[in-house]
Design brief:
The complex is a heterodimer of chains A (512) and B (444). Chain A is of the alpha+beta class. Chain A has 2 domains: 42-129 and 175-199, Penicillin-binding protein 2a (Domain 2) (Alpha-Beta Complex), CATH 3.90.1310.10; 214-375 and 399-508, Beta-lactamase (3-Layer(aba) Sandwich), CATH 3.40.710. Chain A contains 21 helices and 21 strands. In chain A, helix 12 (217-228) crosses helix 16 and helix 14 (270-276) crosses helix 19. Chain B has helices spanning 7-32, 41-59, 68-85, 102-123, 128-131, 134-151, 171-196, 209-228, 232-250, 253-273, 275-285, 296-308, 336-369, 373-397, 415-443, and strands at 93-95, 98-100, 153-155, 158-164, 167-169, 199-201, 204-206, 321-322, 325-326. Chain B is 69% helix and 7% strand. The chains are: A alpha+beta (512), B mainly alpha (444). Chains A and B meet through helix 1, helix 2 and helix 3 of A and helix 9, helix 12, helix 13 and helix 14 of B.
């Protein structure tokens, strides 16, 4: 009888050997081709160690990164640390990140942007031709914005609301990526130092940092409620003046107003409510909007899903922003109306990236159309002398965008944001974002401050989102989000930075 | 003692004479770029060891299975070629005034292992010492475990090693053999009781507990300790060996089913309780989630398999190091299969799997022909140990199952593993020899 059992065992073991053999076939035959082209494949890394790599320029042709082949090894040099969190790095030891990763095959020249030429190169087995990239970012604005943040951890994201072109994408603190890209032993030391730095310089705060938004979220709540038709710019809530003092009881929980700084509560409509940043008013608006609508509009604006700056198949990744608790990478349901009312003024479980909030500002500035953001302007032929070639191989940035709210809702929200910076009450909060303070006499700016309470004794995060120029007949040229970690109130920390950066851009683009 | 010619074994061994030196030479050509064979001392040394084993078996009139040694010889030869090709400073010995690189050290362990194999194959004329003292063997096993717990030191989160001055040993490797002997002895004695008097719970027949309990308690204790030592690969292997032997002894699939259910439940508990089990499973499910961190080893292994493709990069032409560090960590132990699959391709990988399968099926044949239940169960246990270990580590390399840190028998670098594996072959040959001589005695 044992002999029978042994025969059966033999059969089972034979099956097991067959399954294990099949698993080897899976990687060595079926998946082999797709593995061969992945960027973190060590063979690809090894090949690229010796290949020249294209130059990256800013929007005006300044060199941001270039490569030299020394002793058969390709060495990357980065010229402006303000761009590190945009460009990423190309390291022999740590692989690639940022644009270096997203555009790896084009920079190295393994892929031609033109599919027909690409096919011909493949067939002829040509040596890869490196290609250059130019960014949409102007180095002057990027450096200016970085200087405004100075030593504080934070982020500045600026987008052209007309086209989606990213104008500035700053994360501080930043670091010099050249040592990481250099010889592997030195790179390890440099990387260890960065990893152990408590200031977390490796974190790309603009794209991957998740922060409580605070009052800047009221811009979203206002636009969504107006578009859904549940409020108008003139909507008031009868109990609101009393609730400013006594608290607004939702499901047994009292929502309280922030310190109004001596402003006497009154029956406020949208504009004054946004100017003084009334939590009570927007809690009411949020409840009017309802849980389903809130989530629906949040998704339209780009919350609750990962985002990319650039085409979906080749872009800089942006973390997912949430308006409720994250469930499997999506926004979960609201727990109750207290959470909904809190989310309406940017507390509750909201957690957002600076890029997402810049997109919110851009959608309002763009008449309700959220542009498709992009940061690489074009692909050009590589010139060995490091100069900008005239030969443009491919232009990126499709234009267009997604309508997220109607024109009327956008216009009413925009007016309230203009008032929030320039109005009698608003000036007390967001007046520092007024571009006329920084030498721009003929333009108005619009925006909203945010002070993200973190609980406990921690200083709040300081936020501002806005755009300029914002006077009635003007088309905004810059939409912006500024975050200063633990920067205190939005009016003191982020608003003046936003005002200066917007003013600088209006100056740089004057006459255009 | 009469000489017994082993013609089949001799013929099958002849290709090894060529294979190993040829492999060394090809590697040298690829690495040096010159058309020279390089130093073949080690290749010749390996071939000589295998030849000595054959001669001793012939001279001692051994009638054991003739396919086992060739299968082991080829696997060991492929392993030696690979270990000689990898950077020699990955491992090695510095003792007794000697300084040996990785491949030389491995060759030394092969010598020790082959001597042990021959001593057992030729010397073990009566298996009474194994059969009758099974509880003593169990005590030896417990002592080995206790020693590991008390004096062991940790490598990569698992406490497996005991330092004995010049060498470190892994008692788990020897424990495996002792455990197989104990289970074989126990099952041979209680087999009929276990089969006849089973109880039923629903559709499952459950083993009669009174007969089953002593073994179960002992086995559970071993498993607990092994899991405590964080040696998950060994835990999985022990469990597999146990279930296999139980199945062969009783023929009841339901026992295996119960065992599997228990295993899944136990694994789930371990998954919840131990951070390092949890992490390992997550890495297994999606190594590409963190390709430079937790997923580094499996991701690099997968890329190496992909690079190998159908025909391989060629000996000496794989991407072993990148920028001065290994492309796959632990390539000489846990990932030796991956290195072979990279340089010899799917065909080489299949060849290796094929030889392992030959070994397994010859082992089962020895079991089927064994004179008595004890011999059969012992052979099944030893074969299951070698076979399952091969399947578990190769399956781990190809991401079929979560990766565990056990060796590929006869191929991976590691003295304890090599010696233990040869002891098992020695036992298999002894069992085979006894059944053959008994058969002939009954014929005459």
């Amino acid at each position: 009888m044992i002999a029978t059992n042994i025969r059966r065992l033999g059969l089972y073991l034979m099956l097991a050997f067959a399954v294990v053999s099949a698993s080897a076939v899976w990687w060595q035959v079926i998946e082999a081709d797709s593995l061969a082209t992945r960027t973190d494949n060590p063979e690809v890394i090894a090949a690229r160690r010796s290949l020249p790599r294209g130059t990256i320029f800013d929007a005006s042709g300044q060199v941001l990164a270039s490569s030299e082949v020394i002793d058969g090894l390709s060495r990357r040099t980065y010229f402006d640390p303000a761009f590190t969190h945009v460009l990423g790095y190309s390291s022999l030891r740590f692989g690639t990140t940022g644009i270096e990763r997203a555009f790896e095959d084009i920079l190295v020249g393994q892929t031609d942007p033109n599919p027909i030429r690409d096919l011909i190169s493949d067939v002829l087995d040509r040596q890869p031709q490196p290609r250059d990239l130019t960014l949409t970012i102007d180095q002057r604005l990027q450096d200016f914005a970085a200087a405004q943040l100075g030593g504080d951890p934070g982020a500045v994201v600026a987008i052209d609301p007309r086209t989606g072109a990213v104008l500035a994408l700053v994360s501080t603190p930043t670091f010099d990526a050249t040592p990481i890209s250099g010889d592997p032993d030195g790179a390890q030391g440099a990387m260890d130092a960065l990893r152990n730095d408590p200031a977390e310089p490796l974190l790309s705060r603009a794209r991957q940092g998740l922060y409580v938004p605070g009052s800047i979220m009221k811009v979203f709540t206002a636009a969504a409620a107006l578009d859904a038709g549940v409020t108008t710019p003139d909507t008031t809530f009868d109990n609101q003046p009393r609730e400013e003092r006594e608290g607004f009881v939702v499901d047994g929980f009292a929502i309280r107003e922030h310190d109004l700084g001596g402003i006497e509560p009154a029956l406020w409509a949208l504009s004054p409510a946004l100017q003084v940043s009334s939590n009570i008013y927007f809690a009411h608006v949020g409840l009017e909007l309802g849980q389903e609508n809130f989530l629906e509009y949040a998704r339209r604006f780009g919350f609750c899903a990962p985002m990319r700056i650039g085409p979906p198949d080749r872009g800089l990744s942006v973390g997912t922003s949430f308006v409720t608790e994250a469930v499997d990478g999506d926004c979960g349901p609201f727990r109750d109306n207290v959470e909904l009312a809190s989310a309406a003024f940017g507390q509750g479980r909201t957690a957002v990236t600076p890029v997402q909030m810049a997109m919110l500002a851009a959608a309002i500035a763009g008449d309700g159309v959220a542009p498709n953001p992009y940061v690489v302007k074009d692909v050009r032929a590589h010139s060995d002398d490091g100069s900008l070639s005239d030969q443009v191989l491919e232009t990126l940035g499709s234009g267009g965008g997604t309508r997220v709210v109607g024109s009327a809702a956008a216009a009413a929200t925009r007016q309230a944001m203009v008032d929030a910076v320039n109005g009698e009450l608003g000036r007390l909060y967001a007046g520092q974002a007024d571009v006329t303070l920084y030498g721009i006499g003929d333009a108005r700016s619009a925006g909203k401050t945010g002070t993200a309470e973190l609980g406990g004794e921690q200083a709040p995060h300081s936020w501002f989102i806005g755009f300029a120029p914002a006077e009635d007949d003007a088309t905004p040229r810059i939409a912006i989000a500024v975050l200063v970690e633990r920067g205190g109130s939005g009016s003191a920390g982020a608003a003046p930075i936003a005002g200066r950066v917007m003013a600088e851009w209006l100056r740089l683009t004057a006459g255009s | 003692m009469r000489i017994a010619w082993r013609g089949a074994e001799l013929k099958l061994l002849l290709p090894i004479l060529l294979l190993v030196p040829f492999g060394f030479a090809v590697t040298n050509v690829a690495l040096s770029g010159a058309l020279e064979t390089g130093d073949l001392t080690m290749a010749v040394g390996y071939v000589a060891l295998i030849a000595v084993a054959h001669v001793v078996l012939v001279a001692s009139g051994h009638r054991g299975d003739q396919l086992v040694l060739p299968a082991v010889g080829v696997m060991g030869g492929i392993g030696m070629i690979m270990l000689n090709r990898l950077p020699q400073d990955l491992a090695g010995t510095r003792a007794f005034g000697l300084e040996l690189g990785m491949a030389s050290t491995q060759l030394l362990w092969f010598a020790v292992g082959i001597v042990a194999m021959l001593a057992i194959a030729v010397g073990l004329r009566d298996d009474g010492i194994l059969r009758h003292y099974k509880y003593s063997w169990a005590a030896v096993g417990i002592a080995l475990l206790a020693a590991t717990m008390l004096f062991g030191y940790e490598v990569n989160g698992a406490r497996l090693w005991i330092d004995l001055g010049p060498v470190s040993i892994q008692p788990g490797e020897l424990l495996k053999i002792v455990l197989v002997i104990f289970i074989a002895g126990y099952l041979a004695e209680t087999r009929t009781l276990l089969t006849s008097a089973s109880m039923r719970i629903g559709f499952l027949s459950v083993p009669p507990l009174p007969y089953f309990l002593p073994m179960l308690v002992l086995f559970a204790a071993v498993m607990l300790i092994v899991v405590r030592l964080n040696d998950l690969g060994t835990a999985l292997l022990f469990f597999g060996i146990f279930l296999t032997m139980l199945f062969v002894a009783t023929g009841r699939r339901s026992y295996v089913l119960i065992g599997l259910i228990l295993f899944v439940a136990g694994f789930y508990v371990a998954y919840q309780m131990f951070g390092h089990v949890h992490a390992r499973v997550d890495v297994w499910l999606d190594p590409f989630a963190d390709p430079l961190g937790a997923g580094f080893q499996p991701v690099r292994a997968i890329y190496a398999l992909g690079r190998g493709g159908l025909f391989g990069e060629g000996l000496g032409q794989g991407l072993v190091t990148l920028g001065g560090s290994l492309t796959i960590p632990f390539v000489h132990t846990d990932f030796i299969f991956t290195a072979i699959a990279e340089e010899l391709g799917l065909l080489g990988a299949f060849a290796l799997l094929g030889f392992a399968a030959v070994l397994v099926f010859r082992g089962l044949r020895i079991a089927a022909l064994a004179r008595d239940d004890f011999g059969a169960l012992l052979a099944v246990g030893l074969t299951a140990s070698l076979g399952l270990q091969t399947l578990i580590i190769i399956g781990g390399n190809t991401k079929l199952i979560p990766l565990t840190g056990i060796t590929l028998p006869f191929v991976s670098y590691g003295g304890s593993s090599v010696v233990a594996s040869f002891i098992m072959i020695g036992l298999l040959l002894a069992i085979s020899h006894r059944s053959r001589t008994a058969e002939e005695a009954s014929e005459s």
